[in-house]
């Protein structure tokens, strides 16, 4: 993580960063890709303990029960925090430079993409390597349906409340309050759900 500290410091200050100005950081990101590749090649039935050990070493924080079905991909790993009883289906991608915090009892369906980072809007700056990142927080008891895309904004992060269900195929770019079913593109609240 030290090799990407200049990038993480810029993100913490709410500033854009340039990956080309941090060659050690680029190498670090390639090493994370290698760890994800190793994870994805392990056999769920015969190498489950190795998988869990690798994930717990990659993530910043996990609960005791952790199930992530390969293939799984992340950018940094060390900025991902997941709570107890985390279940993640296959082909999930977490671009986590801005940090991802996930509460307890969260289930993520297949083909979900969680994106804390993006590139500069102006093409001249984009080709120079300028990017941004903002945090994504997911509360407790959340289910994110298959094929959903969560994107933090250019100026602020994204927050999904507690006891939320996100319908399959949703594109979530704005905060979602507690105790709701939300779906669509753009994702919007469909109705309230029972709960405290």
Quantity of strands, as a count:
19
Gap between N and C termini, in Å? 39 Å
Coarse shape? globular
CA-atom Rg in angstroms: 17 Å
Written as H for each helix and E for each strand, in order along the chain, the element string is HEHHEEEEEEEEEHEEEEEEEEE
SS class = alpha/beta
How many strands, what sense, and barrel or not for the largest sheet? 7 strands, mixed
* Overall pLDDT level: 94
Q: Please list the strands of the largest sheet in the order they lie side by side.
A: 2-5-8-13-16-18-19
Helix coverage percent? 10-25%
How much of the sequence is in beta strands?
25-35%
Which spans of ≥5 residues are poorly predicted at pLDDT below 50?
A: none
**Number of contiguous helices:** 4
Structural write-up:
This protein is an alpha/beta fold and 196 residues long. Helices cover 22% and strands 29% of the residues. The protein has helices at residues 5-12, 23-41, 48-58, 123-127, and strands at 17-18, 66-68, 72-74, 80-82, 86-88, 92-95, 100-102, 107-108, 113-115, 117-119, 130-133, 136-138, 143-144, 149-151, 158-160, 165-166, 171-172, 180-183, 188-192. The strands form four sheets. The protein has a seven-stranded mixed sheet with strand order 2-5-8-13-16-18-19, with no helix packed on it. A five-stranded parallel sheet has the order 3-6-9-14-17. The radius of gyration is 17 Å and the shape is globular.
